[in-house]
Amino acid sequence: MKAINNYLAVRPHDAVKFNSRDALFLSEQRKRISNRTVQYIVKQELKAAGIDSSKYSVHKLRHTAATLMYKYGEVDIRALQELLGHESIATTQIYTHVDNDQIRSAVERNPLANE
């Protein structure tokens, strides 16, 4: 949060394109950066960190973040669905690797499980 707040202090606020005002990151044209730009930046940063960028991608990082939020952050699957922009909850379930242990645990936590 500190890094984001520091960035927001220097982020351009004037002449931002109308449909980009709610975007966190802006291009030099003061509009929302594209998905391709995000992919390029991540690839460059992976290389700079000495990480093999052929093994990692924006998609894999997104997938990992969603899985960790679901498994360890106790983020509700519906909240993840909204965050990831999935139309179908089935896509989110596949994306987060809902495993048998999680399903079993959910069933066991059901108040009616022991009835």
Integer average pLDDT: 84
* Global shape: elongated
Rg over C-alpha atoms, rounded to the nearest angstrom: 19 Å
Helix content: 40-55%
The string of secondary-structure elements, in order, is HHHHHH
Q: List unreliable stretches of 5+ residues.
A: none
Figure out the total of helices.
6
Describe the protein.
- The protein has 115 residues and is an all-alpha fold.
- It has a domain at 52-115.
- Helices cover 54% and strands 0% of the residues.
- The chain has six helices and no strands.
- The chain has helices at 2-10, 35-48, 58-71, 77-84, 89-95, 100-109.
- α4 (77-84) crosses α5.
- It is elongated and about 60 Å long.
Descriptive tags:
115 residues, mainly alpha, 54% helix, elongated
List the helices and strands and how they pair.
Layout (H helix, E strand, L loop, with lengths): L1 H9 L24 H14 L9 H14 L5 H8 L4 H7 L4 H10 L6
Helix pairs in contact: 4-5
Brief summary:
With 115 residues, the chain is mainly α. It has a domain at 52-115. The chain contains 6 helices and no strands.
